Amino acid sequence: MNRHLQLVREYHQAFQLPQAESGANEHLSDMEIIMRQALLMEEGSQLLKAIESGDMVRILAGLVGLAYSALGAIAIQGGDVQDRPVIWHNDGFVLSLMRLVSDKINACSDGGIDHYSEVYNLCLSLARGFINADFDKAMQRIHDSKMSHLKASDLSDCLYE
To answer: Rounded to whole angstroms, how far apart are CA atoms 141 and 77?
Structure first.
């Protein structure tokens, strides 16, 4: 099982949030898809605002938040992350990045684990390749703050120089 998905499953278990048994691959109801889509759109909005600001720490937090939400949808279904390569050519335009993020979020409207996995893989790829950050460390830090109900700590030391 993907280690970041394990963190999200731990969070769901600790706070008694719904999730299927690992390997169950249950389908989401229409209302669950709507709720998950709303969460992804909210996290996506935060990410796009961070991109607009140019603040790398906020961008990293946005990427982790969006990934965490996508993993939540996978945990609810009892699935696992499907590793898929991310194809994106950095053309230097922020609009192409916005379209990519928006398209991946929009594709999740079918509730499929493969599309949630694509959102997660995109976040992972952008964190590592676009902003040059330690995604694992940032994900662990955000997870720890969620588990303790504390405000997320500063992620600036998760950025490589």
So the answer is: 25
